[in-house]
Design a protein that fits this description.
Elements lengths: L2 E6 L1 H5 L6 H9 L6 E7 L3 H14 L2 E5 L10 H9 L3 E3 L1 H11 L8 H4 L3 E3 L3 E3 L8 E6 L2 E6 L3 H23 L12 E8 L4 H11 L7 E8 L2 E9 L3 H16 L3 E4 L4 H11 L4 E5 L5 H7 L8 E6 L3 H8 L3 H7 L4 H14 L4 E7 L14 E8 L2 E8 L4 H21 L17
Parallel strand pairs: 1-2, 1-3, 3-8, 13-14, 13-15
Antiparallel strand pairs: 4-5, 6-7, 7-8, 9-11, 9-12, 10-11, 15-16, 16-17
């Protein structure tokens, strides 16, 4: 089945906007065992858009047009499609009502420019946009399914998952055996697993060693979505469901410690779920991450059931005053040390009524490192009252990447602790604690 992409916008041509939408839909199309066979990017030029639509519709089964649905004069997709097909444009009642429903709760007054987004080719049906103001629309032209979508990535992604892929799949069913540009295999089963705590290369090496006879008819795909790795196990054919389940079970059995969930599960969701299911409430004390751990946990709905307090104690003075870290400990070992982060955890547990605590202290850089404690050194401590442990990591990377990595590792250590899983995971190269 031939899929074509047509992206429009002067901002794409000038480089002011980076095209992430085509990469996203290309990845998503793999779920249907499809890849785009042509991608074309054009500016806001009506004649060029019209000719491009006619050209691509002639050689494709599906044409996805992305961008040009906004309220300004250079948003030309609706007009271009109408002229390419010889259709007229009029105000679509459904699109108009959807636009009003989007505007009213926001107190947004619709102008004539905004109403332009409801003016669609008469031959088209609406594709709902549950996020933004501009609906998409679709039609059949030269037996090609044409779908027009907004250029805003957050809107486009939702529409791809909820509507574009199902429409492509349905259109593919009508092509089976028709002798068009190709046929589409619909009997596919796909399972997505999300892992954290192992590198992509480490995962591949382990799979090669543990499963040397991994069958060729079970597709194993990798996609790094920092800070996690997504594994896709896909099978085809009449027995695809049973085959898929068999290899998912084998994969899960071996890598269960690293699997945080399925589909779009986030590490914060996995941590909060582990805390909730085990009746634990967390408090955190942060230095080098500046509150990122607390922010991540509380970004999830229902976090009030598993999170009580967060302390951002950047200075030694606040560490002592808020978390009861001892002056002598700081003088003897320094702020970035096992002794200090363990006292931070103990102090946070005393200051709150939480059942489990977490603390981090590190050198994010680019300055502040020493020969003994270079930039990228971080100590992480976690545990319950009377059972606090700590680990040291060396993460030599830019400041923001360092903070993000520390945040993720710290969350996962608590997740593993709560679930009774090993916490001696070699996320990266660990610095061994020097004998004092």
């Amino acid at each position: 089945m031939k899929i074509a992409l047509l992206l429009t916008g002067n901002e794409l041509m000038s480089g002011d906007t980076v095209d992430s939408n085509s990469a996203y839909i290309a990845q998503s199309l793999k779920d249907l065992n499809l890849v785009p066979f042509v991608k074309k990017v054009v500016g806001d030029d009506l004649a060029l858009l019209i000719s491009s639509i006619r050209e691509l519709a002639q050689i494709s089964d599906v044409l996805v047009i992305n961008g040009g649905l906004g309220p300004t004069n250079n948003d030309l997709t609706s007009q271009a499609l109408a002229e390419a097909m010889g259709s007229t444009i009029s105000r679509n009642e459904y699109a108009f009502n959807e636009l009003k429903k989007w505007a009213e709760p926001r107190g947004f007054i619709l102008t004539e420019s905004n109403l332009k987004q409801a003016d669609l080719p008469d031959v088209c049906d609406v594709i709902d946009n549950p996020v933004g103001s501009a609906v998409g629309f679709r039609c059949i032209y030269n037996e090609c399914l044409i779908m027009c979508t907004p250029g805003v990535p957050s809107e486009f992604k939702v529409m791809v998952e909820n509507q574009i892929l199902p429409l492509i799949k349905a259109h593919g069913a009508t092509q089976l055996g028709t002798g068009q540009h190709g046929t589409m295999q619909l009997s596919n089963i796909i399972t997505r697993l999300r892992l954290f705590g192992i590198t992509e290369s480490g995962l591949q090496d382990t799979i090669n060693r543990v499963f040397p006879q991994w069958p060729k008819n079970v597709d194993l795909g990798f996609r790094v979505q920092m800070p996690v790795i997504e594994i896709k196990i896909a099978t085809l054919g009449d027995d695809s469901a049973a085959l898929n389940q068999h290899w998912v079970d084998k994969f899960t059995e071996y890598f269960s410690d690293y699997i945080i969930g399925r589909d779009s599960t986030r590490l914060t969701q996995a941590l909060n779920r582990a805390l909730l299911e085990n009746g634990q409430v967390l408090t955190v004390a942060e230095s080098c991450t500046g509150g990122a751990i607390a922010a991540g946990i509380t970004s999830e709905s229902g976090s009030s059931k598993v999170f009580e307090a967060g302390y951002v104690t950047y200075s030694n003075k606040v560490k002592m005053g808020t978390l009861n870290v001892k002056q002598q400990t700081l003088n003897s070992y320094g702020a970035v040390s096992a002794e200090v982060v363990e006292e931070m955890v103990k102090g946070a547990l005393i200051a709150s009524s939480s059942s489990i605590g977490l603390a981090v202290s590190g050198i994010a850089g680019p300055d502040g490192g020493t020969d003994e404690k270079p930039v990228g050194t971080v100590w992480i401590a976690w545990g319950e009252k009377g059972q606090v442990q700590s680990r040291c990591f060396h993460l030599p990377m830019p400041r923001t990447a360092f903070q993000n990595s520390v945040t993720a590792i710290a969350m996962d250590l608590v997740r593993r602790q709560v679930l009774g899983l090993p916490t001696n995971v070699d996320y990266f190269s660990e610095l061994k604690r020097k004998a004092q």
